[in-house]
Specification:
This protein is mostly helical. It has a domain of 267 residues: MetI-like (MetI-like fold, Orthogonal Bundle). It has twelve helices and seven strands. β5 and β6 form a beta hairpin. The termini are far apart.
Length: 410
């Protein structure tokens, strides 16, 4: 007669993958991963089969072919005979440019509006409420078109600066505001020892990064002295010198001169042109996303206990110092997580740039290049890869900052 005995205590059995809470979540995750791999394999095989039946194949050779089109604003060398890959790089840099600018200004707008919305001044609080409710409830595409239309209709054309219109004058003989954009003085490095422009500015960036770490070390030293003695040493002039002197010395060695814009022919030449499409896209993304950030800031401030404010006031701190030293640092733990989503939204909403003719990555690789080469699958895959990489990068950086702001428990 055969008897069934229980497995030895502690022995692993297949049923534990479902019944044991220690393994159940891993089991379901493994099943989900397997199903996902099967689905992707099926779709990939279906795509390959359909392409083969149509006599097509996936190839990225088109990236080396001449692009055949011009781009109105570039930060790196480019012309119509440059490759499609170079055009894609131009689009990537333009996308990153407007994303960085919009994230910075949207943060400023959001913090200011969020704080002022809690102001005791009734008029200021209501004005900020109108700003928040109006801008976040109208699609950002509408704001992009409105701002671009107002700018092109209200600003004078370049030819007006010839004297046809007396009100069209350059500001300080250095800045020109036209319906095509804003022209400002631009830095030019003249030293023959620094012939590579890109490497020059990379070197300047590295010096600024070094200044950042040096200024951070100086601030930490001042904090240690304050903790030991109760008195914080004055360091603002040292911080200013750390930021300015190294980069100023480097630029002097590189032979920095300023190139001023001047009207030549039918347009301005020289200096830096900030195109109207860039300004419209930048400002629209900033004020639109700033309205959402303002609500995040308001929620974070309200999440801080009133006892913190009352205790700081009892110590004699002024209201502005209470906000900057007591309330906002604690509110950041509530503000930062949704702020990450807003930065991601800015980056993805920048793809609406094609509505005003700004050449971002969607307009170049996902627009003109796709239409000219017919490589829709390849272009869309590269476009998806770019937005995936940049979104994950932003999330990773902001999560590191978020972890640094968490309460450190013993």
């Amino acid at each position: 007669m055969t008897t069934i005995t229980d497995p030895p205590k502690g022995a692993f059995t297949p049923m534990m993958l479902i019944n044991d809470t220690r393994y159940r979540s891993l089991t379901f995750q493994a099943i989900a991963l397997f199903l996902l791999i099967v689905a992707i394999a099926y779709l990939g095989n279906n795509l390959a089969t359909n392409l083969a039946a149509a006599g097509l194949n996936i190839s990225f050779d088109f990236l080396g072919n001449p692009s055949g089109y011009d781009i109105n604003q570039t930060l790196i060398p480019y012309d119509s005979q440059s490759s499609n890959l170079q055009a894609a790089w131009v689009g990537i840099i333009n996308t990153l440019l407007v994303a960085v600018l919009a994230c910075a200004t949207a943060t400023v707008f959001g913090v200011v509006a969020g704080v002022l919305r809690l102001s005791n001044n009734w008029l200021v609080a209501k004005l900020m409420a109108v700003y928040v409710e109006m801008f976040r409830n109208i699609p950002v595409l509408v704001w992009i078109i409105i701002i671009f239309t107002i700018m092109t209709a209200s600003m004078p054309g370049p030819r007006a600066f010839r004297g046809d219109e007396p009100e069209a004058q350059m500001l300080l003989d250095m800045f020109a505001f036209t319906n095509r954009g804003v022209y400002t003085p631009g830095p030019v490095l003249t030293s023959p020892l620094f012939a590579n422009t890109v490497l020059n500015w990379v070197l300047v960036l590295l010096v600024l990064v070094g200044s950042f770490f040096a200024a951070s070390a100086l601030g930490k030293r001042a904090t240690r002295i304050q903790n030991d003695t109760g008195v914080r040493p004055t360091t603002w002039y040292w911080t200013l010198a750390i930021w300015l002197l190294p980069v100023a010395a480097l630029l002097a060695v590189m032979g920095l001169v300023w190139d001023f814009p001047a009207l030549k022919g039918f347009n301005f030449q020289g200096g830096i042109k900030i195109g109207g499409p860039l300004i419209a896209l930048w400002f629209a993304l900033s004020i639109y996303t700033g309205a959402f950030i303002a609500e995040n800031v308001r929620a974070g401030i309200l999440a801080v206990s009133k006892g913190q404010t009352e205790a700081a006031g009892a110590l004699g701190l002024r209201p502005n110092r209470i906000m900057s030293l007591v309330v906002l640092p604690q509110a950041l733990r509530v503000i930062i997580p949704p702020l990450i989503s807003q930065y991601l939204n800015i980056t993805k909403n920048s793809s609406l740039a094609i509505a005003v003719g700004y050449a971002d990555i969607t307009a170049t690789l996902g627009g003109i290049t796709l239409n000219q080469t017919g490589r829709a699958i390849e272009c869309v895959l590269l476009l998806m890869l770019f937005y995936l990489v940049i979104s994950l990068s932003i999330s990773a950086v902001m999560n590191v900052y978020n972890n640094s702001m968490k309460l450190k428990e013993r």
